[in-house]
């Protein structure tokens, strides 16, 4: 069983959590403009990374809040936990921390990079969680 | 010392080095890769082909599954391919000249709620219309089929009845793989173990070969049958697959006298149980929640299915857990497989069988071989094309198919 660090409650058993799949999948900005192929992408296609993966968890039997984590899908080790709405603080290819605005007090652009297609439009995530 | 040992039994297949090129390459030496190569050679006369396996033959999900074979799926498309598969199972021991202990001992899919009862009856009706043997049993009849089951109403979710497919059953999975491998080899198929495909080489949207840890091999047709590794491998040719890989675990008890004459599956309390020929109780349930490639999962998943099993079968309370293990299963969002052409010419995918592809081994091999040989799907796998995620013609077997596996 995984020991998962809830950002609000601290380390708790995996059985208290609900898994939410890949993080940073934004709701389409203009749903009416999407082709069938793009809808299929949004609904059914997710990265299936062997290695570091940015994913969502909800502490459903605790504070009931959603948060993001970076976990290795082979060893299952969770290396980073970070709040909803924040860009992934880790370069998923190298595992290195990305300098973010929080680190430097400026340089707000740096957080969005890496992770291939997965990091975009984090601002929409809060609303996505409500579904 | 060495001369005191008995002769090594005959090997069932050669271990050749890869040739520089093949007419077709099947990636993955699990059941599906083996069955595909078998039908390519047997039905389509393609014998200059190779199976490339990164580890050892059947070291993936093929020899990790709980071997349940059945065809009582709800939707017409599923019933067609799984029933075809079951009919192939019925002739394979003779055809492959190998007794792999295929035992048609039936499967019970239990109902524990009113909704379960309604869905089960509906599925029985659908099955009968599709020529799949199926009947609805009341609790007493369930107990006649499987006397050790508790049909009392003193448990949290009493048994309210169940569906029964008499032609369903189990088989010995590793022997199934060896049976296919021996026949493939006899027909000239090269089975190459310890050969990992590291890249798919394409030019102008066409496959021209594969890169492996044993060098580059030229071919114009590549069939992927790599289960949990499908998405990662297809991506090497720029093809994205709607697959999420999850750990799926199973377990066995120590050996017992025969007590369990059939296969029992319960979606609601979530456990399924059969008894292997040797005597172990074989059990499984659902996937671990998260994506995973570790071939292991959490022990709480094992605990939950054991508590369900003990409630249904009180005599199991004195049994001991002997071994647990896991595989990496390739799950799609409609819980149906993908047996399909791709946008890359010469690249074909067979995947997404998830938690229930052992039963589909011959059916997948049969239809995928047709697809690889002709470049177009067989009518059995045409509905299982990648396009369905765009057209919306999903084959939603989630829940509809009694239970996964
Ligand atoms: C615990 C468990 C219980 C299950 N129970 C049932 C059940 O009761 N009934 C049922 O019908 N199904 C069941 N299944 C599902 C079934 O096992 C799978 O759907 C089926 O085995 C998948 O097809 P396969 O045999 O070809 O897969 P695998 O045996 O996994 O074959 C894929 C092969 O591809 C190889 N490979 C991967 N990448 C590469 C590469 N790059 N190059 C070369 N080779 C590569 C792997 O090493 C592997 O050997 C279960 C699965 C598990 C894990
Ligand atoms: Zn919490």
Annotated CATH homologous superfamily of the domain at 3-87 in chain A: Folate-binding superfamily
The name CATH uses for the topology of the domain at 3-87 in chain A is Folate-binding fold
Average pLDDT metric of chain A? 83
Estimated helix fraction of chain B: 25-40%
Total of helices of chain B: 9
SSE class of chain B: alpha/beta
CATH-scheme architecture of the domain at 3-87 in chain A: 2-Layer Sandwich
Total number of beta strands of chain A: 6
The CATH class of the domain at 3-87 in chain A turns out to be Alpha Beta
Strand order of the largest sheet of chain A: 3-4-5-6
Strand content of chain A: 25-35%
Individual helix count of chain A:
3
- How much of the residues of chain B is beta strand, in percent? 15-25%
What overall form of chain B do the CA principal axes indicate?
globular
Q: What overall form of chain A do the CA principal axes indicate?
A: globular
Can you tell me about this structure?
The complex is a heterodimer of chains A (about 130) and B (about 400). Chain A has about 130 residues and is of the alpha+beta class. Chain A has a domain at about 5-85: Folate-binding superfamily (Folate-binding fold, 2-Layer Sandwich), CATH 3.30.2270.10. In chain A, about 15% of the residues lie in helices and about 25% in strands. Chain A has 3 helices and 6 strands. Chain A has helices spanning about 35-45, 100-105, 125-130, and strands at about 5, 10-15, 20, 50-60, 65-70, 80-85. In chain A, the strands form 2 sheets. Chain A has a 4-stranded antiparallel beta sheet with strand order 3-4-5-6, with no helix packed on it. Chain A is globular and about 40 Å long. Chain B is α/β, with parallel strands linked by helices. Chain B has helices at about 30-45, 75-95, 115-130, 140-145, 175-185, 230-235, 300-310, 360-375, 390; strands spanning about 25, 50, 105-110, 135, 160-165, 190, 195-205, 205-210, 215-220, 220-225, 245-255, 265, 270-275, 280-285, 320-330, 340, 345-350. In chain B, α1 runs parallel beside α5, α1 crosses α8 (about 360-375) and α2 packs across α8 (about 360-375). Chain B contains 9 helices and 17 strands. The mean pLDDT of chain B is about 95. In chain B, strands 4-5-3-12-13-14-11-15 form an 8-stranded mixed beta sheet. Helix content of chain B is about 25%, strand content about 25%. Classes of the chains: A alpha+beta (about 130), B alpha/beta (about 400). The interface between A and B is medium-sized, with 27 and 24 residues. The complex binds flavin-adenine dinucleotide (FAD) and zinc ion (ZN).
């Amino acid at each position: 069983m995984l020991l998962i660090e809830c950002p609000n409650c601290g380390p708790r058993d995996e059985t208290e959590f609900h898994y939410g799949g890949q993080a940073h999948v934004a709701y389409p900005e203009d749903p009416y403009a999407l082709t069938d192929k793009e809808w299929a992408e949004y609904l059914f296609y997710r990265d299936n990374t062997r290695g570091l993966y940015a994913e969502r968890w909800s502490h459903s039997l605790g504070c009931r809040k959603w948060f993001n984590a970076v976990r290795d899908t082979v060893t299952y080790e969770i290396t980073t936990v970070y709040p909803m709405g924040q860009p992934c603080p880790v370069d998923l290819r190298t595992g290195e921390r990305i300098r973010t605005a929080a680190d430097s007090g400026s340089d707000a652009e740096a957080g969005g990079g890496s992770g291939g297609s997965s990091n975009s439009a984090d601002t929409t995530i809060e609303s996505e969680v409500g579904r | 010392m060495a001369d005191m040992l008995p002769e090594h039994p005959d090997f069932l297949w050669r271990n050749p080095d890869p040739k520089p090129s093949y007419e077709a390459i099947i990636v993955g030496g699990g059941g599906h890769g083996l069955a595909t190569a078998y039908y390519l050679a047997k039905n389509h006369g393609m014998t200059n082909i190779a199976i490339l396996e990164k580890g050892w033959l059947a070291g993936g999900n093929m020899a990790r599954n709980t071997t349940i074979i059945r065809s009582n799926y709800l939707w017409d498309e599923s019933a067609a391919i799984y029933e075809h598969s079951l009919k192939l199972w019925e002739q394979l021991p003779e055809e492959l000249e190998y007794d792999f202990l295929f035992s048609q001992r039936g499967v019970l899919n239990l109902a524990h709620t009113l909704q379960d009862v309604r869905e089960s009856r509906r599925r029985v009706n659908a099955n009968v219309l599709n020529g799949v043997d199926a009947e609805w049993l009341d609790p007493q009849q369930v107990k006649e089929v499987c006397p050790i089951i508790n049909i009392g109403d003193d448990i949290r979710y009493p048994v309210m009845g169940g569906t029964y497919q008499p032609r369903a059953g189990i088989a010995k999975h590793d022997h199934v793989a060896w049976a296919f491998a021996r026949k493939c080899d006899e027909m000239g198929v090269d089975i190459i173990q310890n050969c990992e495909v590291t890249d798919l080489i394409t030019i102008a949207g066409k496959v021209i070969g594969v890169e492996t840890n044993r060098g580059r091999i030229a071919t114009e047709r590549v069939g992927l049958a790599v289960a949990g590794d499908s998405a990662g491998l297809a991506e090497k040719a720029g093809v994205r697959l709607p697959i999420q890989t999850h750990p799926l675990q199973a377990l066995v008890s120590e050996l017992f006298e025969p007590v369990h004459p059939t296969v029992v599956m319960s979606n609601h309390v979530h456990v399924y149980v059969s008894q292997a020929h040797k005597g172990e109780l074989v059990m499984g349930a659902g996937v671990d929640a998260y994506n995973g490639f570790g071939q292991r999962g959490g022990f709480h998943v094992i605990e939950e299915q054991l508590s369900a099993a003990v409630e249904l079968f009180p005599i199991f309370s004195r049994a001991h857990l002997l071994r647990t293990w896991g595989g990496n299963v390739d799950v799609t969002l409609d819980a149906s497989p993908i047996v399909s052409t791709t946008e890359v010419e010469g690249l074909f995918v067979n995947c997404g069988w998830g938690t229930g592809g052992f039963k589909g081994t011959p059916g997948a091999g049969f239809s995928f071989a047709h697809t690889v040989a002709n470049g177009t799907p067989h009518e059995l796998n045409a509905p299982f094309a990648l396009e369905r995620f765009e057209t919306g013609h999903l084959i939603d077997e989630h829940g509809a198919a009694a239970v996964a596996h």
